[in-house]
Specification:
The complex is a heterodimer of chains A (111) and B (113). Chain A contains no helices and eleven strands. Chain A is mostly beta strands and 111 residues long. Classes of the chains: A mainly beta (111), B mainly beta (113).
Amino acid sequence: SQTIHQWPATLVQPVGSPLSLECTVEGTSNPNLYWYRQAAGRGLQLLFYSIGIDQISSEVPQNLSASRPQDRQFILSSKKLLLSDSGFYLCAWSGTASPLHFGNGTRLTVT
Amino acid sequence: SQQGEEDPQALSIQEGENATMNCSYKTSINNLQWYRQNSGRGLVHLILIRSNEREKHSGRLRVTLDTSKKSSSLLITASRAADTASYFCATAALKTGANNLFFGTGTRLTVIP
């Protein structure tokens, strides 16, 4: 069966520090991969999605970037975090025209 | 924005009662999906309804879709305390493709034992 791993679960980082969140999927090939951000008490904002290695689309201009160095690995990065980057980050995967399967999320607090 | 908007924002009911949540969206869609999120966790897919379907059932869940009104509803029958969670609708727009889902802000459901 397919599983998705996302880490770390929580992270506290100072303003201006770099960020790297990692997500990996097991049990499937060539998944669509997604990064979403959820602000407190709000809906999900799609940040990036990828249909294949090195094929990444950005939905929102910001100081975050995403990379997909391997088929089932998706990384969310920032060179310098802002206070406004705080939130709950969720990685997800899907097949073609199928529902999303989410990881358990990373709670990021920028101080 | 093509995001769905759920209504109400919060709902509190007694165990055993039915819970109805509504979702409205703005653009033509490929499908509409409902997800559930327990506090501090990832979302879990509940049900998907395609644009050419009007109603779908899954266990205690019933989803309707009215594309003319650009709205959907999620009914949970015979609610349980374990149904307490946030519920989100998500739309896959025709324009952007079936896999680009846009989520609403959710309905926070509390089921009182």
